[in-house]
Amino acid sequence: MSRITQRPENMTTHQVIDTEMFADSVEWCPFNQHATTLLCGTYQLQEDGKTESPEEVPKTPQVRLGHLRMYKLKTSDANPPELELVHKLHMPGILDIKWCRSLVDDQMVFGLVNSVGELQIWTFIDGVKEPQLNHKLKLDEGCLGLSLDWSTKHESENQKVVASDSTGSISVYDINSDPQCLHRWKAHDFEAWISCFNYWDSNIIYSGGDDCKLKGWDLRKDTNSPIFTKRFDMGVCSMQCNSYNSISQNIIATGGYDEYVRLWDVRNWKRELKDIRLDGGVWRIKWDPFNGTHILTATMYNGFHILNTSNPDEDMSIVTEYKIDDHGSLGYGADWCTLPVNNISDKTNIIHTLISTCSFYDHSLHLWSPEIK
Predict the structure, then answer these.
(1) pLDDT (0 to 100) of residue 154
(2) Which of 29, 184, 220, 297 is the most buried (most CB within 10 A)?
(3) Which among 136, 163, 247, 241 is positioned nearest to 198, based on CA atoms?
(4) In sequence order, what DSSP letters do the residues of 301-353 get, joined into one string?
(5) How many CB atoms lie within 10 A of CB 171?
(6) Measured between alpha carbons, how far is residue 315 from residues 116, 285, 303, 310 in Å?
(7) Is 246 helix (H, G, I), strand (E, B) or coil?
(8) 118 bridge partner residues
């Protein structure tokens, strides 16, 4: 198991779990009454004992297995928080998981993309033995599903899902009682590592790929032509729009193999608002759900970081580093728990919360708490 280097004055490790297979995605349930539910996805190549990571997409079909692991958080005044495994479902390797932030047909649902090119939609019902698979939607033959995102965090109807895959294509589905593919197009020359919605305008989608390009798309127009293209020196593999409030609705964070997190105003893509180098490829980005001023990253070979973006007149700063030192393990999954530990203190302006992160080659899931000032 990895050794974790941490700053003891501003974080605490509560638990380290062996996920059996290589772990690459974690997602806390966003609904308050079920904020103690955590999903973890694993992915492992089964071929003569060889291994590969999610960004090593082979050109020939391989067998990749995985688990969907569901945990429940146990808390008490007397004991530190602890995750308990409640379900483990065997399936093709999982590369991304996302909860829908609003109910779909009055149900809590989440989606995942996997190593056989499927977008799967699952229903979570508390008290039921295990989550229920509702739909299997094929992205394309012979591809890997690489990322997905739900259309909006501010509406409860007409939910859509965008998914990206290893052919460089983007697919958009209407997710209701009878899901259907609304759009599919070739967006990137190589793997489309990431795709996401503008949460304030679900007609707008952003995508990033191994062709070193970030592109914007308007679903009301011809998707054969992007509304803009931004070129980078290396591949773009993470992005997320800020959904906290209308003040931040034009802000998006992006990351890639060039090891930078960049903030942009979506109204002007000529130059980033600010950037910071993290000395590791930025595989995942998550804005904090409390006030939309901090970013959690999975930083591949350099562990995990929390960044402060709160002051528009100052550069981003690293407030917490959670590093993996051993085995060359890759930090791929990270998410904030929406269940506050001590809530947000207006007097001290300190956020106490729980974070889960997962790393690949050491097949581990970590539960920890930062103290963010």
Answers:
(1) 61
(2) 297
(3) 241
(4) TT-EEEEE---TTS--EEEEEEEE-STT--EEEEEE-SS-SS-B-TTT--EE-
(5) 25
(6) 41, 18, 21, 9
(7) helix
(8) 138
State how far the Cα of 72 lies from the Cα of 35, in Å rounded to an integer: 9
First-residue to last-residue Cα distance in the chain? 30
Residue 317, pLDDT > 60, answer yes
d(CA 361, CA 111): 24
Burial class (CB in 10 A: 0-12, 13-18, 19+), 67: buried
Q: Determine contact, residues 232/213, Cβ cutoff 8 Å.
A: yes
Q: Please name the residue that has the structure tokens 């992160």.
A: 357
59-73, 233-247, 287-301: least confident range: 59-73
> CA-CA distance, 319 to 345, in Å (whole number)?
18
Taken in order 81, 87, 88, 92, the sign of the CA dihedral is negative
Going by C-alpha positions, the residue among 354, 370, 308, 364 that lies closest to residue 333 is 364
Residue with tokens 């007397």: 78
**pLDDT tens column, 158-211:** 789 999 999 999 999 998 778 889 999 999 999 999 999 999 999 999 999 999
Query: Residue 335 and residue 26: Cα distance in Å, rounded?
Result: 6
Tokens of 76: 């008490």
Query: How far is Cα of residue 156 from the mean position of the Cα atoms in its chain?
Result: 21
Do residues 83 and 76 touch, judged by C-beta distance below 8 A? no
Contacts of residue 363, defined as CB under 8 A and 6 or more positions apart, other chains included, come to: 18, 19, 20, 21, 22, 23, 42
